Amino acid sequence: MNATLAIAGATFGEAVRKRILLVILLVALLIILISPAFEPFAGGRGARTLILGFGFGVVQLAGTFIAIILCTAMIPLEIERRTIYTILSKPVQRYQFVLGKFLGAVGTLGFVYLMMGLVLLIASRLALGEFDPKIIGGLVMFFFQSSLLAAVALFFSTFVSPLVNYFLSGGVFLLGNLLSSFLESIQRNPEVTPLTRIPVQLLTIILPNFASFNVQNPIINPEQVLTDPTAYTVQTIAYGVVYIALLLIASMLIFNQREM
Amino acid sequence: MSDLAIRTVNLTKRYSGLWSKQAVEAVKNLNLEVYRGEIFGFLGPNGAGKTTTIKVLLGIIYPTEGEAYVLGQPAGDPKNHYKISYLPENPYFYDYMTGREILTFYAKLFGIPEPERSKRVNELLDRVGLLRAADQTLRTYSKGMLQRIGLAQCLINDPELLILDEPTAGLDPIAHIDIRDTILELRNQGKTLFISSHQLSDVERVCDRVAILNKGVMVQLGRIEELLAGGHVEVIADKVPDNALEPIRQLGGKVSLHDGRLIVEQPDNGSVDRVIDIVRAAGGHIVSVKPYRRSLEDLFVETIQGGTSA
């Protein structure tokens, strides 16, 4: 465990010094902070809709970019720079290396979400005059969404180049956000043949369902109510954790066979 | 306990492309034995298969055929890595870390607890002469400093076997001597060193035995003094009368005259004494007696260009 934590610490230390990551974080924080200034342009949707809608949108976008940037080159970069050789020549199992890299990425995402969350809470408190604990729930869900995406990107990084990985991870994220709604709509349509429906159903099962983490709508609009928000949150997070675990196991198995 | 630090049996490593059917054999049937406590030079031109062999020994890649053992255990066993260390060619470390932080990081990989960890890190920084630069980030280090921190990370676990890939490449003369001295000091401590290098003068100076690899095949293996036997001694003499030339020629050496001076190349010291005696008895003057030792560079060039096999 020592080795895993040491690798996680080194990954975190390197990640929080990446300029591109800091720029994304800084821009996100700035946009969240100045979002109350756009209230006059809200056009009757209200300050809450504007600030939280804007805030959650920025948080999700920044989290997505950071997860992809952080993890797509995670393993190839270590091989290219040859840092991996001095690490794997120590008493470090390959699974510890993969786990350490992932924990470092998750730690970085945690730090990023903490920063963005604090600024979003401050902005909403200042502009709306209230502190809504549901915002924290929404942030936690987005954090797990980004962590799942990080696991997807790390999985691909064990066997494809960073450029291919950008497209693969981006594609999986996009499909994972759209497929469940698409499936719902084709299930409602009696004209859709099984030949179309079954592949979509299969893809929906296989690919991670990123859309289930998008819980901003009930938070932004108090009229939209989840029947049992706690159960939904727990189930969704459990789904995310299980999916992450499966991806990590697959990454470890592939990386164990990989020659560098 | 086996007296072998490294052993390979018919080790073969073949690389095949995803789409191409033609495989490249980086290492072919390598049988190598490195004894504990020796400094072993692993030589060969670029692409000879040296780094591939090292990667197999470290478990970074897997053999296609054959076996590899390190300190008596199958190569790549992470438990065995407590006793070995590796310095890659042109090592790169996380350059946002300071010298102290990178050594602490590697110490953590070995699970070395505090306060032992800090003590060992400080000792090593002192040993490689980087105590004053310990809190500078690695991106400010020169190549020589990076090589020294690389050597320090190699010693963090007090290893039995050190595998060094080009440990002195690109270093200035002072850093070069420092690393060479450290290598000799480590041998005196009973450690085994397996060194892959193109710095043949260094290898000749520090190694006990060498192997030369060419196109994946081991073409030379032996003790340095045995491999480099076959030098000659050159005797230059002046005012040697013509009647002394014949008895000198009969000794079997190479005899020539240049600007009135006699130049004799004899293969061994015994015949050199006789040449000197003949010259003196004939009233000639000995100008110089110079031994010419065959260098590792000569052997390397002859082996690679001549295709000599072990």
Short description, anyone?
Chain A has 260 residues and is mainly α.
What does this structure look like?
The complex is a heterodimer of chains A (260) and B (310). Chain A is mainly α and 260 residues long. Chain A is built from eleven helices and no strands. Chain A has one domain (2-257). Chain A is 78% helix and 0% strand. In chain A, helix 7 packs across helix 8 (162-188) and helix 7 (134-157) runs parallel beside helix 11 (229-257). Chain A is globular. The model of chain A has no long low-confidence stretch (mean pLDDT 90). Chain B has 310 residues and is of the alpha/beta class. Chain B has helices at 50-58, 99-109, 116-127, 143-155, 173-188, 200-206, 224-227, 245-249, 269-281, 296-306; strands at 4-16, 23-35, 39-43, 65-70, 73-74, 84-87, 161-165, 192-196, 209-214, 217-223, 232-238, 254-258, 261-266, 285-292. The longest helix of chain B has 16 residues, at 173-188. Chain B starts with a strand and ends with a helix.
